[in-house]
Fold this protein.
Amino acid sequence: MRASHPTAERLPRITVEVPVLDVEAPLESLGRYVDSVRKPEGLHMTLLHVGILDRLATDVVAWTGGIASADVVIREVSSWLRGLPVLDGFLGKSAKLVTLGGGRVSSLEVEVPQAVHDYQTLLVQGLHVLLDDLGLDNIDDFILSSPALGYRSPRWIPHVAVGRARTKHQEPLVLETVALEFGSSRIRNEASLPSVV
């Protein structure tokens, strides 16, 4: 069953993220280990991946046997996202290059303040409450199995994707410590969320 929201198919991926404002060292040096190194202005750390809303709605409708309609799911998720508190900017550091995303994405594993871990936990707890209100049971199972949400592990690893891994499942590499400055949290593609009335 597909969601009935007319523009949902064209909606981009929705995430809660923090942008990277500054990196202490030039990223070009990672070219020895990473293919297609990303430009600094596009770097960010994802705190919560929501995915394409119509696909998430389809997953919820299928899981609940239609207790909540796709339109209701899209409306409630959009409202919840817009009501989230904002995490202030912070400093982090990284000394390790790891592969994530099924072993295909090279990322800087980042040490972040406890407040960032607490905020990410708040996001996941809020997602649990939202899904419970939408009529889901076995919510942890849903989160890990929903193709829209795309989670492969229950453990969040703070990271910044920097490019494509040269080989799948590369071993972690220890690097010289790099300082990173992050901005305040934001909803990526927030302007594409449907209006909530």
About this structure: The chain has a mean pLDDT of 89.
